[in-house]
Amino acid sequence: MRRTPRVVFDGPAGTGKTLLALEAARRGHAAGRSVLFLCFNRPLALWLQDQAAELLAAGRTPAMTVRTLHQYMIDVAGPSVRGSPADGETYWDEALPQAAAERLLENWDRLERTERDGLPSSSLGPTLGIYDELIVDEAQDVVRDCFLDVLDLSVRGGLSEGTWRMFGDFAWQTIYDDTVSLDGFCEGRGANCPQIPLDENCRNTPRVAALACSAGDVAPGYSRVLRPDDGIDPDVRYYTDAAGQALLLQSALQELYEEQFTGPQVAVLSTKSDERAVAPRLPDQAWRDRLQPLIESKDFATVVNTRTGRTHYSSIHRFKGLEANAVVVTDVESLDSARERSLVYVGATRAKHRLVVLAHESLRGRLA
């Protein structure tokens, strides 16, 4: 990062990408540059905002902004977007990026006029959505063709000559769009930037890392796992029907509770959406009351519950980028497709100390 203004760090889960992204943002800010720090998932954005709270203080210069890509585009585009979120991908991947890019072009004209007139512009850029440095975590979900114009216009010098650092897992965590090509980006809009591989796991225990790689068909996997072996194997339990899985989940949570893994130390992650997952269907009311969706709708608004003291359940998609001391991966019904294997891999690698996997009986022998 010190030696080159543009670089992509590419590595599987648990190799320290988010830690490096935070350090890149801090160093950019310390060097006097305004920093735009983007990611894809809202829970991760909230966690990053907590970690960078001191640098995000109102009125502090240089400016630092931490947003999801879509939050940033909404901030920039304002009310000029045609359509609504109800339009689905047409809104998020077409209308919103187009409106944000058009507004950024207008803002660039304003910024350049200010600078030609010899007026101070260092604080104006961030108010217009234009920064000295761009940091992107979860880059495999952000560096997509439909967003590249927005990224290009968000940083001085653009993607070809600006200062930016991107961190992603382009091989094993492209669960939103598997057409993203790291080589294509680096050789095109990335102006032949260097690709730095990360392959040492610093999050998981060796046994958790081994199961995650086996389930996800991740090869060659990690060059080494830095944490010592604690001698505890991941716990794989099999169910035959929905009622049986609910009982397995409840007993797993009780056992983790007795081991002092409580509240937000535990995450229940499903391959399915919250509406179809097993977590809200536990038979015991007391356990249902202890669980809370990570993301829920309240009073016509979306609320992210990262700062509560309860155990959260979530789809694996929504928890990507985060971690927990104990993780229970649920609703594992098939490993036939690359996407299904990738989801289990992503979910399993969220676990720092304990991992429980609830899988259908038909998968017995395939998770080891």
Write the layout of secondary structure elements.
Blueprint: E1 6-10, H1 17-30, E2 35-39, H2 42-51, E3 64-68, H3 69-77, H4 89-116, H5 124-127, E4 133-136, H6 139-142, H7 148-154, H8 158-161, E5 163-168, H9 182-187, E6 195-197, E7 200-201, H10 206-216, E8 224-225, E9 235-239, H11 242-258, E10 266-270, H12 285-290, E11 291-293, E12 295-298, E13 301-304, E14 311-315, H13 316-319, E15 324-332, H14 338-348, E16 351-360
Parallel strand pairs: 1-5, 1-6, 2-3, 2-4, 4-5, 7-8, 9-16, 10-14, 10-15, 11-14, 15-16
Antiparallel strand pairs: 12-13
- Give me the count of strands: 16
* Rg, Å, rounded: 21 Å
Task: Determine the structural class based on helices, strands and strand pairing.
Answer: alpha/beta
- Average of pLDDT: 91
Oligomer: single chain
Number of DSSP helices?
Answer: 14
* Shape assignment: globular
Helix content: 25-40%
Strand content: 15-25%
Cα(first) to Cα(last) distance is 38 Å
Q: Could you spell the SSE succession in H and E letters?
A: EHEHEHHHEHHHEHEEHEEHEHEEEEHEHE
Biggest sheet features: 6 strands, parallel
Could you characterize the architecture of this molecule?
The radius of gyration is 21 Å and the shape is globular. 37% of the residues lie in helices and 21% in strands. Strand 15, helix 14 (338-348) and strand 16 (351-360) form a beta-alpha-beta unit. The protein is of the alpha/beta class. The chain has helices at 17-30, 42-51, 69-77, 89-116, 124-127, 139-142, 148-154, 158-161, 182-187, 206-216, 242-258, 285-290, 316-319, 338-348; strands at 6-10, 35-39, 64-68, 133-136, 163-168, 195-197, 200-201, 224-225, 235-239, 266-270, 291-293, 295-298, 301-304, 311-315, 324-332, 351-360. The model has no long low-confidence stretch (mean pLDDT 91). The strands form four sheets. Strands 3-2-4-5-1-6 form a six-stranded parallel β-sheet. It has a six-stranded parallel β-sheet with strand order 9-16-15-10-14-11, sandwiched between helices. The chain is built from 14 helices and 16 strands.
